[in-house]
Amino acid sequence: MKTLKIIKIGGNIIDNEAALQQFLSDFSTITTPKILVHGGGKLATKLAQQMQVDVKMVDGRRITDQETLDIITMVYAGKINKNIVAQLQANNCNAIGFSGADGNTIVSDLRPSKPIDYGFAGDVKKVNTETLEILLNNEITPVFCAITHDKNGQLLNTNADTIASELAIGFASKYNTELYYCFEKNGVLKNVNNDHSVIENINTESYKTLVENKVIFEGMLPKLNNCFHAINHQVQKVCIGKSDMLFDKNIKHTTITK
Amino acid sequence: MKTLKIIKIGGNIIDNEAALQQFLSDFSTITTPKILVHGGGKLATKLAQQMQVDVKMVDGRRITDQETLDIITMVYAGKINKNIVAQLQANNCNAIGFSGADGNTIVSDLRPSKPIDYGFAGDVKKVNTETLEILLNNEITPVFCAITHDKNGQLLNTNADTIASELAIGFASKYNTELYYCFEKNGVLKNVNNDHSVIENINTESYKTLVENKVIFEGMLPKLNNCFHAINHQVQKVCIGKSDMLFDKNIKHTTITK
């Protein structure tokens, strides 16, 4: 089977123009089929403030009312996605931007309004890979923003980490699928304040212990749940770390195994 | 040769939610390969006002500084394009949203800064149809917003009518290509105040006379120049009128011929 790399980048790259340019230049050198998934960074919050729309967060997750949905659609699918695509094209990487509505690639259910009403937030129900496979077979690179749809005309705000893991799972029977979560740290750290304290391997058993001992907590919990969800659904390889791990094998990072 | 319909819609449909829904439902019933091109309507101007960014126009054309480029990228490629795609999917039309950067489909040159500096405005240089052909062959419908790129990482604001005619020309050797400009009137009118005074056929010769007699003027001039540009470059059929002309053969409209 061919290898497919699914790479998710977040705010530390998106919000830093020089870092983004360097990353996209490096990303373009990857010769295997690949899919890029990007988060939104701070731009959506900045635009909301500029438009005097209140930003409502519960447990670190955005409450997506209609105005907020419009803002994230404009920022994620518009400004960020199209600028990434244009820069990839400049690096001779033939990219096409996607939301989950495009090609009906990712269908979500509206998240139940209880216990917390997150508004137009979507939980992924189904990934349709057919169209994406056609593109990958033609050396085209899909670039996903964190928006899906319900197949009834409604766009939905969806967590970018989840989109990456669900895409990886969707392709796992067709490709040797590798999932990379790039973020600001070298990986999962034993000591959150020491970037050299990378835990190089976490499996289901050691994960339990790390959670019990509160070494892994807060924002890292959903990220790692996405990792284990992927590795338990046929995804071959799941890694967390700085994006450098993709381009230099000597860079320490965390690998998730069963 | 198979028929390809390239259909451009403007503000009268984009800015009216009910009209847009009806159009997209009708559009989805078209069984030939098809491409939709949409303008931006009034939303970009509205957002600019909300963000307190000045809107600068010269001769009806927007001056696109960096802030304005960000706004149109957000509104055209984000909000409008993704909502159209989601609604087409709800109508079982498998659409994918495009700017000219996506798939490197439309490459433009930055418009010369003299006599008027329009900022980040692009004049179409080349249409690459390969990726779009793959999609059309797989019953996927591309939906274009009015943004292109220079292949060096720069997005450019580009006239939607021009995008439609250049796409039509790009496909003219591969498909029996038909180009439809949908707008708020029944076609080119003898008397601009009488929607029943449709001129049903205009050719190169009668066009000259109509321009000399100032029957055709202002905003209609560039639209008709796009029409003749297309018809003089192998496009098989060019029509202007209300979008109803697509779905009802008895609806009067203007057809452009050599």
UniProtKB/TrEMBL annotation, chains A, B:
One of its GO terms (molecular function) is acetylglutamate kinase activity. Keywords: Amino-acid biosynthesis, Arginine biosynthesis, ATP-binding, Cytoplasm, Kinase, Nucleotide-binding, Transferase. GO terms for biological process: L-arginine biosynthetic process via ornithine. Catalyzes the ATP-dependent phosphorylation of N-acetyl-L-glutamate. The gene is argB. This is Acetylglutamate kinase. Its EC number is 2.7.2.8. The lineage of its organism: Bacteria, Pseudomonadati, Bacteroidota, Flavobacteriia, Flavobacteriales. Belongs to the acetylglutamate kinase family. ArgB subfamily. It catalyses: N-acetyl-L-glutamate + ATP = N-acetyl-L-glutamyl 5-phosphate + ADP. GO terms for cellular component: cytoplasm. The record marks 8, 223 as: Transition state stabilizer. PANTHER family: N-ACETYLGLUTAMATE SYNTHASE, N-ACETYLGLUTAMATE SYNTHASE, MITOCHONDRIAL. Its main location: cytoplasm. Substrate binds at residues 40-41, 62, 157. Residues 5-241 form the Aspartate/glutamate/uridylate kinase domain. The keyword Iron-sulfur does not apply. It is found in: Cytoplasm. Pathway: Amino-acid biosynthesis; L-arginine biosynthesis; N(2)-acetyl-L-ornithine from L-glutamate: step 2/4. Coiled coil: none annotated. SUPFAM superfamilies: Carbamate kinase-like.
